[in-house]
Amino acid sequence: MIISSCMADIDREEYLKEERKAPWREDLRKTKKNKERTDLTRVKMPEAPARERAGSYVEVNMGLSALQAVNEASRCIDCPDPTCITGCPVGINIPKFIKNIERQEFLEAARTLKETNALPAVCGRVCPQEKQCEANCFYTIKLKREPVAIGYLERFAADYEQNSGEVSVPEVAPANGKKVAVVGSGPAGLAFAGDMARFGYDVHILEALHEIGGVLKYGIPEFRLPNKVVDIEIESLRKMGVKFETNFIVGKTATIQELREEGFEGFFVGSGAGLPRFMNIPGENLVGILSSNEYLTRVNLMGASRQGMDTPVMRGKKVAVIGGGNTAMDSVRTALRLGAERATIIYRRSLEEMPARVEEIKHAQEEGVEFLTLNNPVEYIGDEKGRVKQIRVQKMVLGEPDASGRRSPVPLEGSEYIMDADTVVVSVGVSPNPLIPQSLPDLKVSRWGTLEVNQETLQTSIPDIFAGGDIVRGGATVILAMGDGRKAAASMHKYLQGNL
């Protein structure tokens, strides 16, 4: 019986009973030689049909079956120098967890992941493995072939554990009597909290919004990351002793100094970068033009797409999304699910230079999203009621590389044209929320509004405050934020023990 690891509608006991006696299990226990392993082809992730998913919030990637996972795990040759680990910001022992899957010890694989990763089911879905662990795989570097599907296997092990009802909780050290606060419950804060709980600290996460999860909840749609997956990961942290408080705005509800007076000895700021950027072009204040942050938060966190919810949201028929990152893909694909008849990405560079994951671009194309690359909006045109109705767009050509190494887009003279749009979602970057720096005059801030930190320790200019994630980076991936959280936890632990 081969069943996807996404088992919401399957009886759990029946699944486990059938899986344990599946006839393929014994056949796969035979040891393979490296030649046999490298002859295997990479697994393809099953996906919901494009037409079906474009009109619903069904999860696009459906997960691997146990048989698919074991077969893919057997491609790993268990390198003596596992370079894949060096590509992982949280330092997962990748060969160990994969070999556990190959041996069909799925729960042990999940436990291995949790040794260094507080959110394995999340990372298995949204991390850009193709730029990190998989980019450093033996297959990629030496054989110039498709790498082991590390992300798919991570998701499989984490999902298997969640669906088994035997979710493990990492061990924590005895309480040391020291209390620390985490500002923000996004990936950086959650990773930090998990490690500090292991060290024996009394960890309190203070979240400004009404739900825990930060960008995992408000920024990533459920067709990519179901909320129930995030909630189970958070529950594991709760069982480790981490405490959560919502609707708590540090700097308003209480200042850092007031929290110090309550006994907090260390602070980690992981409040992200939720302040949207706009392009400052004519017509940007028209009705129907909004940031991707607002658009996705209304739908993902406040339920604007669900029947009976009071939260309003723009449901345009001709929706244009400006930008080419993952957030732009999330926005344009959300527009389709809200009923858009035409959903378009407008991006000033070429398709090859889009920063979004290749998988997200592929999924958007399959679902019917139109891509206008080498195009850039220069003006929004409104109707008599002040609502956007058209965009003046200018074609671009690629010039010399900029500081990032990508070729800079240059306007093509005389190429402007008009296109219709009744909703525009701007997704051209974000900046850190200034509330924390404004409430702490001694906190050093860069000219971009990010917090300045010691790159080795992530300690800020105020000794008991550490920071990581987008508040430092200005916009990054979930896994890089988590890596910051882990590094900051190790540093704060040393600091609070008098060793930093």
**So how many helices?**
21
Could you report the average pLDDT, rounded to the nearest whole number? 93
CATH topology name of the largest domain, in short, is FAD/NAD(P)-binding domain
Question: Per CATH, which architecture of the largest domain?
Answer: 3-Layer(bba) Sandwich
Helix vs. strand class: alpha/beta
- Are there runs of 5+ residues with pLDDT below 50, and where? 1-12
Can you count the beta strands?
A: 16
Task: State the helicity in percent bands.
Answer: 25-40%
Q: What kind of assembly state do the chains in view correspond to?
A: single chain
Total domain count: 3
Q: Which range does the strand content fall in?
A: 15-25%
Give a short account of the largest sheet. Answer: 5 strands, parallel
- Which superfamily, in CATH terms, is the homologous superfamily of the largest domain? FAD/NAD(P)-binding domain
- Shape designation: globular
Give the terminus-to-terminus CA distance. 54 Å
CATH C-level of the largest domain: Alpha Beta
- The rounded Rg comes to 23 Å
Q: Give the neighbour order of strands across the main sheet.
A: 3-2-1-4-16
Q: What would you note in describing this structure?
A:
- This protein has helices at residues 12-20, 24-27, 34-39, 50-53, 66-73, 83-86, 94-102, 106-114, 120-126, 138-143, 150-164, 187-198, 215-218, 227-239, 256-261, 292-300, 326-337, 358-367, 435-439, 470-473, 478-496; strands spanning 179-183, 202-206, 243-245, 264-269, 275-276, 289-291, 318-322, 342-347, 370-373, 375-382, 388-401, 407-411, 417-420, 423-426, 430-431, 465-467.
- Strand 1, helix 12 and strand 2 (202-206) form a beta-alpha-beta unit.
- Residues 1-12 have low confidence and may be disordered.
- The longest helix has 19 residues, at 478-496.
- Helix 7 crosses helix 11.
- With 500 residues, it is an alpha/beta fold.
- A five-stranded parallel sheet has the order 3-2-1-4-16. A five-stranded parallel sheet has the order 6-14-7-8-9. Strands 10, 11, 12 and 13 form a four-stranded antiparallel sheet that branches.
- The chain folds into three domains: 12-164, Orthogonal Bundle (Fumarate Reductase Iron-sulfur Protein, Chain B, domain 2), CATH 1.10.1060.10; 179-274 and 432-496, FAD/NAD(P)-binding domain, CATH 3.50.50.60; 277-429, FAD/NAD(P)-binding domain (3-Layer(bba) Sandwich).
- The chain starts with 11 loop residues before the first helix and ends with a helix.
- The protein contains 21 helices and 16 strands.
